[in-house]
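From the methods appendix. Each design record in this collection lists the tokenized structure first, followed by the designed amino acid sequence. Records were kept in a plain field format so they could be parsed without special tools. The example shown here is representative of the layout used throughout.

RECORD:
FOLD TOKENS (79 positions):
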């Protein structure tokens, strides 16, 4: 278990490349990608269309900000 306490920009999208049959979600936190099986969002969120430069394409996300996120048992909690 790890707890992170600072303002983070979070973008969430489905992981179409999932190979383990468990971690179907991509959580991009301050630009760093994490694969998780479930995400619990307890803050205001919205959908966004974001340009991904290294792929030269747009991706759609559930986006939010939080200063309280926690990874526990393969799940992400955004509070």
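DESIGN:
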């Amino acid at each position: 278990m790890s707890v992170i306490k600072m303002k983070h920009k979070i973008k969430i999208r489905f992981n179409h490349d999932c190979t383990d049959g468990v971690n179907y979600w991509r959580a991009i936190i301050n630009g760093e990608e994490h694969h998780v099986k479930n995400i619990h969002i307890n803050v205001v969120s919205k959908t966004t269309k974001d340009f991904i430069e290294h792929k030269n394409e747009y991706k759609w996300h559930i986006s939010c900000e939080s200063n309280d996120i926690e990874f526990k048992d393969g799940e992400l909690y955004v509070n």
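APPENDIX NOTE: The two ends are 15 Å apart (CA to CA).
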